[in-house]
Design a protein that fits this description.
The chain is of the alpha+beta class. It is built from 7 helices and 8 strands. Helix 4 crosses helix 5 and helix 6 packs antiparallel against helix 7.
Length: 240
Amino acid sequence: MYAIIRSDHRLPVEARGVGNPPVRVRKVDGNGVAAVVSDAPGDLRARRRDLLAHQDLLLGLAETGSVLPMRFGSVAGGDEAVLKQLRDGEQRYAATLRRLDGRVEFNLKASPDPDALAAVVREDREVRQLSAAARRRPGYEANIRLGQAVAAALDRRAAQAARDTLETLVPLADATAAGPDVPGCVLNASFLVERGLREAFRDAVAAMTDRHRDRAVLKLAGPLPCYSFAASGAGEPVEA
């Protein structure tokens, strides 16, 4: 299973899914909503080829209508099982599809700038003091304290940049959602953005990247399938 769409949502011409060779996809129609499915390969695994095929199909579907994406590897026992799922969730699916109409998802991750050491030494009094102490009396303990202070200062600066970036981006989005913790990142957030505001959103991220060049590294991905906003109630505010 790839996605849930409206019954009148047409599949892209020659749409293909996972497998080698890629298999043809089709719709299983319910009452107003439908599932996009294909036969599952017997050796279905998270190969890069198939992960990309899954995502490409979702992006193609999103070009012509709203989509509730399914995670890669979602399988059902057959058409009857799919139809039961559609009947059980029909109203919820339809409401969420309406909420996602004309919208895409962007994901932003922020991490400390590893090249900001000079700025940290210049601006952080504690780091300057510990650096001077380590030069006067070098040793293991002095180096450990200095390293910990630098790491903490880098994280603080990145977190400040992330908060400032969120203040700029949140008004451009219909909803935001916090993602799971990512090692090395101070922010992992997704944004539900109107399709017509895609360039404005990218431009805002670019401006924040320049503004915080010595504080944080900002990595934007998208537009993406609306994974973070497909569930009922998804889209809670995110804090840095």
